[in-house]
Amino acid sequence: MSDVKQAAATKGNVTEVFKTFLKLGLTSFGGPIAHIGYFRKEIIERQGWVSESQFSQLLAICQFIPGPASSQLGFSLGLLRAGWLGAIAAFIAFTLPSVVMLLAFAFALPALDGHIGESAIHGLKLVACAVVADAVLSMSKKLCPDTYRQSLAVLAACVLLLMGSVWAQILLVCGGAIAGMVCCREPAQAGDSHTQVNYGKRLGLVLLAMFLFLLLALGLVSDEEGLYSVAQAFYNAGAMVFGGGHVVLPLLEDSVVATGWVSKESFLAGYGAAQAIPGPMFAFSAYLGAIIPTEHGSWLVALVALTFMFLPGFLLVAAVLPLWQAISVNPIAVNAIAGVNAVVVGILGAALYDPILTAGITSGTDLAIALVALGMLTIWRISSLYVVVWCLCASVLSALL
């Protein structure tokens, strides 16, 4: 039995999950697409919790449903590894550093030297370039082994680059499933390829009902300045956004700026701070909650905003997982999954160009820094933490010289 199979077959513990995702929460710069690369490097290559097939299936699920895709992926990986406590530990460990750093960074931002601060932020974008490129190269080798699936990946990347919308991603995932059913002929999957959770479809349906109940019940709240209205605003934003990350910003702006809770200047300042921190973009909700004026303490409002921002996405992914477990053993579903996996590689490839490379590579120096970082990951197998240090130092030094 391979190391990956052996590790995937062995359940972990909550402490192990917490430590792993705390490391990811402290080092995963670059937004949700880059997080996929960090997760893959740590969870599959370094620790072997799941197989490549399991990881790609979880990724496809999280991209297909509303919510913060990278946080949903982490929640799901924690759930598979150590049950419900593992899922909660993964969420807390991955999110807490970004919440703390975002609030601290927002207060410290005026005191930072503008040129040095901008160079450091740019260095973090170069980290994302290397991490995502590594993920695309590695996943393409394993998930696109034949000409047909390689063609699907290229086609998906082209469509997404031309259309550039979240709905295009959803249509591509559906199209990949259909193309897989028609043309892919995958053998029956081994047991280590299934995404197995320790609860059944009945609980999944209960979780789905909870998602819908909260969506309807919070819509009836009329308290304009209390915690209920904060919960409503952030739950609705989390429940209605596909793609996560930057896609949620217009919804949040409509919820907190248009209502007069937060000034546009404060909103944009927090958004700028969110670009420089690791971890999920949805942690921006804690910053907004902390500055919303209510009769309650700012930390309590921040906690409510953060919780209800993430809650709908977690309820949905937990509801879908047991259903996915039931259908993924079907031969037709296996072929559909193969097609979806190929499309996921194309989607990630398109994201590597826009917004990762377009925002990160602005000169030959940037390209050289990113290439060295890619070599550190793919050739010398150096920890991503050192890659972050390299890109930060090289970017700041090149700006000073």
Give a topology summary.
Blueprint: H1 3-9, H2 14-27, H3 32-46, H4 52-64, H5 69-108, H6 114-143, H7 147-163, H8 166-183, H9 201-218, H10 227-240, H11 249-256, H12 264-274, H13 284-291, H14 298-327, H15 331-360, H16 364-378, H17 384-400
Helix pairs in contact: 2-5, 3-5, 3-6, 4-5, 4-15, 5-12, 5-14, 6-15, 6-16, 6-17, 7-8, 7-15, 8-15, 9-14, 10-14, 13-14, 16-17
Description:
The chain is an all-alpha fold. 76% of the residues lie in helices and 0% in strands. It contains 17 helices and no strands. The protein has helices spanning 3-9, 14-27, 32-46, 52-64, 69-108, 114-143, 147-163, 166-183, 201-218, 227-240, 249-256, 264-274, 284-291, 298-327, 331-360, 364-378, 384-400. Helix 5 packs across helix 12 (264-274). The longest helix is centred in the N-terminal third of the chain and has 40 residues, at 69-108. The chain starts with a helix and ends with a helix.
**Total E-strand runs:** 0
Largest sheet: none
* Order of helical and strand elements: HHHHHHHHHHHHHHHHH
Oligomer: single chain
Shape assignment: globular
Structural class by helix and strand composition: mainly alpha
Mean pLDDT: 83
Helical amount among residues, as a percent range? Answer: over 70%
Distance between the termini: 52 Å
Percentage beta strand: under 5%
**Tally of contiguous helical segments:** 17
